[in-house]
Design a protein that fits this description.
- This protein is about 0% helix and about 25% strand.
- The chain is mostly beta strands and about 45 residues long.
- The protein has one domain.
- It has a two-stranded antiparallel ribbon.
- The relative contact order is 0.27.
Length: about 45
């Protein structure tokens, strides 16, 4: 149920939900687990 509250989980290719950010959500795989992030907001 908690995954419905995540802002970027499983939203690869969607615009970043942070106000004013023009980034696109990306996904990478680390140790067989997916990580979703905005490369503009999170460096």
């Amino acid at each position: 149920m908690f995954q419905h509250r995540f802002r970027v989980y499983d939203r690869e290719g969607v615009r970043c939900p942070t106000r004013g950010c023009k980034g696109t959500i990306k996904a990478i795989v680390q140790n067989a687990r997916s990580t979703y992030y905005c490369p503009v907001c999170q460096r």
